[in-house]
Each structure stands twice: as structure tokens, then as C-alpha cells.
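Appendix B. Raw example, untouched.
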Amino acid sequence: MVRRALAHPLFAPVLLIAIFALGSATIAFLLLGPGLGAWADTLLRACFGWNAETRRYRLDSLVLALLQPPLFAAVVFAFYADDVRAFLASRRGRLAGILTPALFLALAVSLLVTSEISASGAAPSPGTLPSPLRQGTPAPAFSLVDHRGLAISLERFKGKAVAMTFVYANCHSSCPLLISRLKSLEARVPGASVVFVAVSLDPDRDTPAALREVADRWELDERWHLVTGAPDAVRRLIAACGIQWAPLPDGEIAHENVVLFIDRQGRLAFTYRGLAHPEERQAADLARLASERG
């Protein structure tokens, strides 16, 4: 049966179409996977050298993913050239023989044009990391509560610059680093014209009382608001800010390390993804937002 299948005149053409179809599906996952959550980040990291912190692919992994389909296709064609030519001689064969490689090529070009790639996938040095572009869209509105039990909304902070991040009380890895970075910025940009907001990624467990405890542990002052609320409302804000996160079986939460700066008019100004951005640059951006009047 296997010998009969290998000798079938449609075996090689169908195999070629399957090769390019699978290659196209793989590239589509490389393009869309970074927005699908922590499970996708884990798979991308293991198979394609994806670094969720820097949002970069490793060059060698990406080249391998792009070269495998055409190399396999070349091998199949070398052994079944006559069958492939006969298939391409028909109208349906030409259509399938052109469309599947063309789709693969289009997706491959799109991946190379739109993706960040580095030789190691590691973060660039802070000195070479480009500063994010100034944005100007309205920041997502929200109505939540902070660790003091105060009602918190974006409207409450009008007239002040806001440095916002996303953490949770039981985090023992990157959350303390995010808070430490914002405390350093707080020391560099004194005054009442800046507030610091940390939105809980775990509103089911992070009650105001739980956040009060962590605020004491992190030694946060009156310019800080650790924010929680109804889980649906909190998660709508997280989604509106484009934060990737996913609960893990052990109660931990996989999440991006993101800092947002919002200007005094309530507009999203800067989005910093990862912890590699120079503190001096962030402090300068925040100070400029705090001093702006328009």
C-alpha cells in the first residue's frame, strides 16, 4: 500500500501543496502568535527563538523556518519531476502550483518586513534601544478602586502625567522590578504633577486590602495607586492597553513588562515594552509630560 501511494501520480503534487500550506500556516503563526497569549509565547520561544521581552525573533530560527518548505519542495521535485510537470500541465494543477507557493512567499516577505530580528533574540543594549514614538490617542477610560479604597478613574488624573504599569501582589519575578523602575522614575521626577498607577493583573485575589499590604511592602507613597476592581472591568482595561497575560497552573501569571506614560490631557504618550529602556530616557520623557501645558 505504501509503495502504491508513493507511485501514485498525485503523490508528489499533493505533497508539494501540503509542504507550502504547512509553511504558510507556520508563518501565519509567527505573525499572529505574539498577540495570542502566554501559551503562544511559550511555543514561539521554544520553536522559533522568540523573545517576548524584546519582541524579537532569533535570526537562525527564523531562517530555518523560512528555508525548510522550499528545500523540502526541491527534494520532492528532484525525485518526482515528471509527475509534478504532468500535474502543472492541467489548469487546476497550475492554479494550485502557483497559489500555494505564492501565498507562502507573500507571508514570508510580510514576516521579514514587519518583525524585529536579532542574531541572538536578546535585548539590545539600553544605549542602542530606540525610544518609542510619541503617541496621541486617548488613553483607555476606566473606573476602578485603589488600595486605599478610593474611586480611581482616568478623569481623576486629568492635569497630571501618569506612569502606569501592570503587576499583581503574588508576583515574585518581574513585578518588583517594574515597581523598582517606577520608584526610580519617581525619585527623578519629583512633584505632584505625576502619579504612578499599577493595575492588578489578578483582580480576583488582589483586593484593596491585599494591595495595601503589598504597597507597604514596596514602600509606596501617596503618589501611588495600586488599582483593582471588578474582574471584568479590570480585564477590559488590560485588553484595551494591549497587555499580554495568561494565568498559569501554579497560580502565577505570565505577563508582559509594560510601562505606559499618559499625558496631562489623558492621551497615551509612550509605550515601553520590556525593561531594557534606559531609565534616563524614561525620566526625561516623563518630566517633559509633567511640564507640558497643552
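End of appendix B.
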